[in-house]
């Protein structure tokens, strides 16, 4: 087991190559299960993160209660409205409709803004039990997992978990201060114990691998500490997985480029004024800089 620092040259060499004779089907099919009433921004940022990092097709599975606003916000994503509850979350009928389609995707992202309800608990647990393609679990998906951590051990495919310190604390049942004081140990132990990749977000985000190796990120700044930033990152990582990168490589590349977009925005807009949507808009500059 070792700890090392990622650099831009490694990331550049790891990125998917786009062939001249290719088409959208060559760059993956991502299904992002995100959003609920009042949380359209989470779904939007996840989709933008995926699209701006090159995925061929981004299917956004959402409760039909938020179809209209997302139809206005997003042009390139394929919207998949699912039956919703009165409160605006994906309903049990929507869950069953979704489960039968999971195998057609290259990667699934679950959790951004879905809420924590009985219905989304059932959704998360059934996805974990049935999924056979790589999975990125974020936000409310992590909060639901913390109620029954054994579910992650039953996942048949590779999984990436993207917690911040508070979510990580809930996953391991310890105070947030413990996580913040023992970041490498916590991320490494969880990744090894549950055979998954852990992206522990924060200053110098860590990417812990199932073999015990840990990568320390060097990009990013405090201006990124705003709601929506994590949703953008989750979409980026899922996009790279869908395009064919290995799960660990996708996680490291996503974290590095996400931070680089944040650094560009901080320089141009200031840490105070920059927004996660600005980071999404800065991703073209990130790729051009590489």
3D structure, described in words:
The protein is of the alpha/beta class and 290 residues long. The protein is built from twelve helices and ten strands. Strands 1-10-9-8-7-6-5-2-3-4 form a ten-stranded mixed β-sheet, sandwiched between helices. Strand 8 and strand 9 form a beta hairpin. Helix 2 runs parallel beside helix 12, helix 10 packs across helix 11 and helix 11 crosses helix 12. The longest helix is centred in the last third of the chain and has 23 residues. It is globular. The chain starts with a strand and ends with a helix. The model has no long low-confidence stretch (mean pLDDT 97).
User: Unreliable runs, pLDDT <50, ≥5 residues?
Assistant: none
Radius of gyration: 17 Å
The count of β-strands is 10
Q: Which descriptor suits the 3D outline?
A: globular
Provide the β-strand percentage band: 5-15%
The whole-number mean of residue pLDDT values reads 97
Strand order of the largest sheet: 1-10-9-8-7-6-5-2-3-4
- Output the number of helix runs: 12
Distance between the termini: 29 Å
Please bin the fraction of helical residues: 40-55%
SSE ordering: EHEHEHEHEHEHEHHHEEEHHH
Report the sheet with the most strands, covering strand number, pairing sense and barrel closure.
Answer: 10 strands, mixed
- Structural class comes to alpha/beta
For the structure shown, list the relevant keywords:
290 residues, alpha/beta, ten-stranded mixed sheet, 14% strand, globular
Short recap of the structure:
With 290 residues, this protein is of the alpha/beta class. It has helices at 8-14, 40-52, 67-73, 92-99, 118-130, 140-145, 165-172, 176-181, 183-194, 229-242, 247-269, 276-289, and strands spanning 3-5, 29-33, 57-63, 78-82, 107-110, 135-137, 159-161, 197-200, 206-208, 214-216.
